[in-house]
Amino acid sequence: MESLEAELERARGLEVAELADAIETIGFECTRCGACCKSEADDPHTATVFPDEVRALQDAPSRDPDGSNDLPDAPREWRDVARPMPYGVEDGAGETFEWALQTDACGDCTFYEESEDGTGACSVHADRPLICETYPFSVALGGTSQPMGEPVDSVALGDRTDATGDDEAGAVRAHECEGLGREISREDAEELAAALKARAVRELREAIGVRDAYEPIDPDGGVVVHDSEGAKRPDGSTYDG
């Protein structure tokens, strides 16, 4: 199995132009349906957010859905932005290895707003996390880490294959979204491709950081989140003080 460090080097070597070619082949235009920001089948929205992205969102100004006005609701507490990723947590106890964007009472992303005509918008769009900026695309490198969720379309990157001969290793994958298949300009494809490469690199850097910083913690019946900065409580404070 390929090491995280080797996969990170592969991610750093991704060509933005090649990623953009794949995105153009698949096609995409955001319809602002809000599906990627809302709960689904009673399952709360889950989107991974990195620690530094949480801090950026704590201070990010919010805007009305039409983008016209800044709303004075920053700075925010850590809990206002992120919650422990629920995988590994049961009955309010356990350990997990990621943060997820906070949700509202309906299970939708706490930053999701909907106008009177039903058009969705992100109230912190300019500061949204990389996973939001790049949805519905992900990069699969065929190594240790793999994007979650089954793709509905994919385009292989060059002749990259893994040791098993999997021709999907090294691919841009598209996940369920009604905006797929629509024409996208080269400029927009390259902007999205650059963000997709940045996300692939960041995800692997975070995974390496989590691995290296991990130390067993007894949360005393509570929750511990292991991220690249160490073990934290749900409010973002560290277990070492």
Question: How are the secondary structure elements laid out?
Answer:
Elements: H1 4-12, H2 16-26, E1 48-49, H3 51-59, E2 62-63, E3 70-71, H4 78-81, E4 82-84, E5 89-90, E6 93-96, E7 99-101, E8 112-114, E9 120-122, H5 130-134, E10 137-140, E11 153-156, E12 171-174, H6 186-213, E13 223-227, E14 230-232
Description of the molecule:
The chain has helices at 4-12, 16-26, 51-59, 78-81, 130-134, 186-213; strands at residues 48-49, 62-63, 70-71, 82-84, 89-90, 93-96, 99-101, 112-114, 120-122, 137-140, 153-156, 171-174, 223-227, 230-232. The protein is an alpha+beta fold and 241 residues long. It has one domain (4-232). The strands form five sheets. It has a four-stranded mixed sheet. A three-stranded antiparallel sheet has the order 1-7-4. A three-stranded antiparallel sheet has the order 10-12-11.
Salient structural properties:
241 residues; 4-stranded mixed β-sheet
Class per helix and strand makeup: alpha+beta
Task: Profile the largest sheet.
Answer: 4 strands, mixed
* Strand order across the largest sheet: 5-6-13-14
Tell me the distance between the termini: 36 Å
The SSE string, one letter per element, is: HHEHEEHEEEEEEHEEEHEE
Total domain count:
1
**DSSP strand (E) fraction?**
15-25%
Work out the number of β strands.
14
Helix content: 25-40%
Which geometry do the CA atoms define?
globular
Number of helices: 6
Mean pLDDT: 87
Radius of gyration: 18 Å
- Low-pLDDT stretches are 161-168
Brief account:
With 241 residues, the chain is of the alpha+beta class. The protein has helices at 4-12, 16-26, 51-59, 78-81, 130-134, 186-213; strands at residues 48-49, 62-63, 70-71, 82-84, 89-90, 93-96, 99-101, 112-114, 120-122, 137-140, 153-156, 171-174, 223-227, 230-232. Strands 5-6-13-14 form a 4-stranded mixed β-sheet. Strands 1-7-4 form a 3-stranded antiparallel β-sheet.
